[in-house]
Amino acid sequence: MRTIAATESVSQAELDAISGTGSEGRVTKSDILSYLESRKNGSANAKVGAPAAAPSVPVSSAPAPIAAATSISGDVEIIEMDRMRKLIADHMVMSKHTSPHVTSFVEVDVTNLVQWRDKIKNSFEKREGEKITFTPVFIEAVAKAIKDYPMINVSVDGTKIIVKKNINIGMAAALPTGNLIVPVIKNADRLNLLGLTKSVNDLAKRARANKLVPDEIQGGTFTLTNVGTFGNVMGTPIINQPQVAIMAVGAIRKKPAVIETPQGDAIAIRQMMFLSMSYDHRVVDGSLGGSFIKRVAEYLEQFDVNREI
Questions:
Q1: CATH of domain 102-301
Q2: Measured distance CA(156)–CA(284) in Å, rounded
Q3: Catalytic residue numbers?
Q4: Predicted TM-score (pTM) of this structure
């Protein structure tokens, strides 16, 4: 919090004037971000205690300007971080300082899911005018698992555990500038697979065009990030505070695997992927974290290849 104040040249007098929304009226990071947004827009009477957008969210529809590079020598140049990158950096460091991170991994056989998508993707695109990806299915599986293990869907305030009743899944997305943004699908458990697909495609498209509104990047209770998009098989993501868990899905690869058949074990080529989940060990122990990620894997492995959408 002090780092942001120093970076944005917020005086002590300004800090003292901010009305805090934290416990016992303390000023939180969100309060400062909200104040900075009000100050940038020239709104002197803006309510400074209101929730701010996530640190990784652009509030303008125009892409952030890329800082000019300063040449030091033939071998080195210095590039000043833009404001968005500074906020992301501060948010990531704060998360590692706040939460003791533990990461669990599980390998998943998603052969049925891949076969299902291959079977319906052309007819779906012809009918709906848009593509279907694996992301909506991943989000559906996460939402189902959260209903089974609701203590994953929490945040921490001092010594208090705040259990969130709404299941709001954030999906991390890379912007053309290289920065990150996390649009949120609100009440993901109340949407069917078609609704999730529409929401994912719409949010992803408008995220890339910097056309999201602040409400669409706030209120997340769990985050999903797809490192497989970049060809990575697994990752160890950093928790998106104040959430307590984040899951990464890796690239789907064909691999030989042992399968059980009525005639005995056999080796077959299967579509395999890794799930990894980092969680806050203050409130999520290995039993809960491991059981949750395993439940997500089970939902994906049991996907009905004949399912309609």
A1: 3.30.559.10
A2: 11
A3: 281, 285
A4: 0.75
